[in-house]
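Hi F.,

I've been meaning to write this up properly since the lab meeting, where we talked about keeping a consistent format for the predictions we share between groups. The idea is simple: the sequence comes first, exactly as it goes in, then the structure tokens exactly as they come out, then a line or two of notes. No screenshots and no reformatting. I'm using this chain as the first example so we have something concrete to point to.
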Amino acid sequence: MFDIDGTLLKCFGAGKKSLIQACQEVFGTVGKMNAVDFQGKTDPLILIESLGIMGYREEDINKNIDRLKELYFRHLDDNIFDASSILLPGIEELLQLLSDREDILLGLLTGNFRESARIKLGRFDLNRFFRFGVFGDDASYRNDMPAIAREIIRREYGIDIPFGDFVIIGDTVYDIDCAKTSGAVSISVGTGWLAPEILLARNPDYFFKDLSDTRAVMRAILG
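Output, unedited:
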């Protein structure tokens, strides 16, 4: 299961810019969103942290979430092409190798809303590789996501995969913590915004500076 931003691609602020635009239009304020660190956090958690200082409670945000999403996705559809978005090294080759295998179920574990994930991945035609995902729509906290993923797999594919056979790949400490909390294998990649020593201090099972060495990454995934 892959994270998106900083792991598969970088859109250099297109997502943040779009969420700020939508938030301003819906709530008339962005609270402290300009100062919030988006890395590894779900979109709902970013909204809660940003708007709480202005007196908005989670239930207040949820009442307006459909309108906010509508505007956010519209802005992102435009901004994703204005920004200098890049596909990170080795990603397309790695995803093709993984999706070609019958013994691997390739999914997403991301804080993005489902539609914003689709828009970002669509920038580089990556949606075709992923068979399922867990998104910010499903949980506000990343550590809750592996259990949701396991339930989706049970329901949609009729198989029960133990957490020890999950592999969670991401660029933040939150991805490592999420894997460790659930008992999944953690693969940390240094293509995000954190120094390698910060990631290594969390003791991921594997660390790669990027995912360009697809053979080595495949060995780590397959155990």
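Notes:
The first helix runs from residue 14 to 27.
The mean pLDDT is 94.

If this format works for you, I'll send the rest the same way.

G.
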